[in-house]
Amino acid sequence: MKPLKGIHHISAITANAKENLRFYTEIIGMRLVKKTVNQDDTSMYHLFYADKRGNPGTDLTFFEIPNAGRTYPGTQSISETSLRVANDEALNYWLKRLAKYGVSHDNVQEVFNRKVLKFRDFEGQRLQFVSDETNEGVAGGEPWPDSPVPVHQGVIGLGPVELTVPRPEKTHRILTEVMGFREVGTYENDVDKKITVFATGEGGTGAEVHVKASHNAPRERPGRGSVHHVAFRVESEEELHKWVDYISSLGMTNSGFVERYYFKSLYFRESNGILFELATDGPGFETDETLENLGQSLALPPYLENKREEIESTIKPL
Predict the structure, then answer these.
(1) Gap between the Cα atoms of 267 and 94, Å rounded
(2) pTM
(3) Count of other CB atoms within 10 angstroms of residue 224
(4) Which tens digits make up the pLDDT trace of 238-254?
């Protein structure tokens, strides 16, 4: 198979889709590029926030589970999501904007030779802005021009994803021996936990996984503000079928080929129990909506259209 191209999307959990929509569009300034439902449970929203046209590598998505409890952070988790911005100066803008809206945040710091700004959303989702100033890898997307955030400070995609695991060597092996990642460095955080950095494809901020070793922490209890899974980019449907055959040949339990309409997918869990998805770059979100109208109405793939009336009667309008 060809190397994985980087991060495709990250899917998290919210208990309040309406407030989630307000936070990520009005404060963070991302574009709602698709308002649809969870194809495995059509009673819940699935919201996609991204760049101007929802390019692969820019999508932060949320499932709404209204009765989701709080998250108890711990190990065996996707413990931090990064949002890319163009340069270090953009982080100064975000310091002021987060303070203006009362968003919990830290100061700008340097992590793995990049400037970052860590913050939490209204449900405690663990996030950071990461500067692309020194990036020489996968290119970012194009900020939404109608965003309340100026284009030069806007979010251009997803950055490194952090995994916290009790047996890091097992995750390292899956990433390198199975998925074709390469180790590119290590660093320690402020509580002396070693973090190992892996990259795929062109590398850089849009193609890294940071694996944090946490041997004694309890397992995370997910809820609102936690991450459900991370997806990695596959070039084409043909390549994805190769991955399905390969993962199956290794005896790893997996979903097989899954039709998601906007992309095609394969799901499996790595050795510490974290859910990985491989997803194709296309067809994309303009399959059933024009670029100008992305996210404005409830979009359903053709195989759910016959349930539209039932679905619309179940979910609350945003």
Answers:
(1) 34
(2) 0.97
(3) 24
(4) 999 999 999 999 999 99
